[in-house]
Amino acid sequence: MLPFFEKMAVVGVGLIGGSLARAARAKGIVSTIIGIGRGEPNLERAIELGVIDAKTRDLAEGIQEADLIVLATPVDGMRDLLGKVASHVKADAIITDVGSVKGTLVQEAETRFPTPSRFVGGHPIAGTEHSGVEASYPSLFENRMCILTPTEKTDPLAVEKVRQLWEAVGAKVLTMDLVQHDRIMGFVSHLPHMIAYAMVNTIEEAEKKEGNLLDFSAGGFGDFSRIASSHPEMWRDIFLMNRDVLLEAMAVFTETFDELKARLSARDGEGLEEHFRRSRRTRALLLEQKKE
Amino acid sequence: MLPFFEKMAVVGVGLIGGSLARAARAKGIVSTIIGIGRGEPNLERAIELGVIDAKTRDLAEGIQEADLIVLATPVDGMRDLLGKVASHVKADAIITDVGSVKGTLVQEAETRFPTPSRFVGGHPIAGTEHSGVEASYPSLFENRMCILTPTEKTDPLAVEKVRQLWEAVGAKVLTMDLVQHDRIMGFVSHLPHMIAYAMVNTIEEAEKKEGNLLDFSAGGFGDFSRIASSHPEMWRDIFLMNRDVLLEAMAVFTETFDELKARLSARDGEGLEEHFRRSRRTRALLLEQKKE
């Protein structure tokens, strides 16, 4: 079923917020879109591009008539917005977000909004290494997963509306416990990003001694550098907000890495190969799931 | 200038050997191609696919009339072949290889072949996560780098011929000291592969506790698993042959990773961000170089 929103307010018109605005408009599920942000040039560009219809830097003004509010700022800033959103939002408005870490944000939201809460935590697993409204496009969410993390305090009707929103723009929607969400993302997303950053910095470090290594990025390093080129502030905030899980994931990685190091050091070819065979099986499993 | 070879012998008709055979034929720089290998079914398939004209499991027989011999077996097996190749090769034949580690192989070759040596170490930086002759295709080397590692004992005319071979199939050829080659590859290729294996095994480990993580591979983990799905035996051998450099590279990585861990643990957002900004600059530099 297609939902309909008279006025959608997008707080933070970047890659994700901008793409959701474009997609919602393209699907005809929204009448007016107002963009809210701190950077005037970005908001102006968003109007020029037809991503939003109106703009404001005043959060209270921007959301007061909206029946759908999407928080799409960097995760760190979101928590600070919740109080103001709660004070100025229409009683029947639905509020959702697109942050990569859910725990602290959803918990904070539930202290700010009355129960049953019309705030629904959301996380579309989509993105590119680019950022800003210029990089946004309406098909970004097609066939991508979007995880919603309602709690027992969340209004089921609000959850249903947000589900319809994401399904309308092409996403496959999944609901999940917020702690589980943050644990899973800590391992499959935050850890790989942290590793990619460390890998790129290792190459940078080694360049001082080894000469120009970047010329040879096709050898395997190129993929890492793509992952590590995402927005530095954004990842800093995600990592800090999911600190405990990420530290745990990093420890598991270190253990595995050290084991491989020990096997290599001991010239234990059989042990290495056994490790690599397991990796290959995991990959095969993954591709099989994608086909289904 | 296009080279020409009357009879090309490819030892190991897999992804790389098969692709080079296909490309050489497509460019018309070879008259007959003989495939040499241990697996009869693979050789038969290579004939069916038109990759080779004839096949044999007998190395001596396969190379005796060849004027170009390409060693394209897994790196570990190559060293053992050199003695036999040296005993049965035509006096004016050129011998080259496609191995990812050059040091020990080239050194061994120079004890086996007379000086000036017509053995030229080579390493096309190309490949996919697939292996075997089925996966081979003639454009694999187009616009990819191919590194040659001649020494002072190598016949310059042989180097020139091998350079022409790779340029004919579309590669950009670079010559380099073999120690430097192995150091560079240890950092930009072998280290990323080792990390990818460790990352995939970490996810596999965490799955036991966290539930199905593979469903969420789009979050960043997917790229790693692709890298880690390459041939396990092949990477085992490459790692063992470049063990010292790789251990060094792993140590540099661990240092960087541990520093990030310490910063995260200390909630040092500024320090993390500074790291990530450096990564982004490195990536930008890399893309700039590609454009040139």
Protein described:
Two copies of one chain form a homodimer. Chain A is built from eleven helices and nine strands. The first copy, chain A, has 292 residues and is α/β, with parallel strands linked by helices. Chain A has a six-stranded parallel β-sheet with strand order 3-2-1-4-5-6, with helices on both faces. The longest helix of chain A has 33 residues, at 178-210. Chain A starts with a strand and ends with a helix.
Bin the strand percentage of chain A.
5-15%
Element pattern of chain A in H and E: EHEHEHEHEHEEEHEHHHHH
How large, in whole angstroms, is the Cα Rg of chain A? 21 Å
* Assembly context of the chains: homodimer
Shape of chain A: globular
Tally of extended strands of chain A?
9
User: Structural class of the secondary elements of chain A?
Assistant: alpha/beta
Low-pLDDT parts of chain A are none
The total of helices of chain A stands at 11
Q: Helicity of chain A, in percent?
A: 40-55%
The end-to-end span of chain A amounts to 24 Å
Mean pLDDT of chain A: 91
Spatial strand arrangement across the major sheet of chain A:
3-2-1-4-5-6
Task: Summarize the structure in short.
Two copies of one chain form a homodimer. With 292 residues, chain A is an alpha/beta fold. The first copy, chain A, has helices at residues 15-26, 40-48, 59-63, 75-88, 103-112, 156-168, 178-210, 221-227, 232-241, 243-265, 269-291, and strands spanning 5-11, 30-36, 54-56, 68-71, 94-97, 119-120, 122-124, 145-148, 172-175.
